[in-house]
Amino acid sequence: MVTTIQIDEKTKHLLDKLKVHYRQSYNEVIEKMAKENIGGKKDIMFFAGAWKDLEDKEVENIKKSISNLRKSSTKELIDRT
């Protein structure tokens, strides 16, 4: 069964940005969004390009922070034993 829905131009542009491939249907895009929101799991590709607008220095600071957190948590685990 097929159902017709109406969306405004702004929403259509947002859906266009979510397409992985230009030939992907809006049905596929909406279905993927619905599954992600219902299941609570995000596709790893959701995060692709998340840092694209950050400056290199900001990215390096984030990486250093992550590294420091890993080192401190490892040290904490070792100290417990």
Based on the model shown, name its key terms:
single chain; 81 residues; mainly alpha; Arc Repressor Mutant; 2 domains; 3 helices; elongated
User: What is the domain tally?
Assistant: 2
User: Structural class, please?
Assistant: mainly alpha
Number of strands: 0
Assigned CATH architecture of the largest domain: Orthogonal Bundle
- What helical percentage do the residues reach? 55-70%
CATH class identity of the largest domain: Mainly Alpha
- Give me the CATH fold name of the largest domain: Arc Repressor Mutant
Summarize the structure.
With 81 residues, the chain is mainly α. The protein has helices at 9-18, 26-39, 56-80.
Helix-strand blueprint:
Blueprint (H helix, E strand, L loop, with lengths): L8 H10 L7 H14 L16 H25 L1
How would you explain this protein's 3D organization?
By secondary structure, this protein is mostly helical. It has two domains: 1-45, Arc Repressor Mutant (Orthogonal Bundle), CATH 1.10.1220; 49-81. Helices cover 60% and strands 0% of the residues. It is built from three helices and no strands. The protein has helices at 9-18, 26-39, 56-80. The chain is elongated and about 60 Å long. It starts with 8 loop residues before the first helix and ends with a helix.
